[in-house]
Amino acid sequence: xxxxxxxxxxxxxxxxxEGEPSAADILEVIEKIEEEGIAVFFVEEYTSPxxxxxxxxxxxGLEIKTLYTMELPPMDSEDDYxxxxxxxxxxxxxxxxC
Length: 98
Prior knowledge:
Blueprint: H1 2-5, H2 23-36, E1 40-44, H3 49-58, E2 63-67, H4 81-95
Parallel strand pairs: 1-2
Helix pairs in contact: 2-3
């Protein structure tokens, strides 16, 4: 999907999605956002809230959108696969201006 729609994957926490990102990891993402003029940053639902807050604090006007991967059970017991995929679609549509 990233290739088809010209999206770029930038990770906040390396290859361990459950690990805490280092300050260097966060700084690298902030630099990429600034270099590329990124206005919308998509994060997975279990991305460290502290890391996201640090990125938002150091950038201006950055909008955060959540993408649900279903790698772990949904945070909200009302959600299921289809409801999360609908949320992904809506987030992508608004985030990409479709």
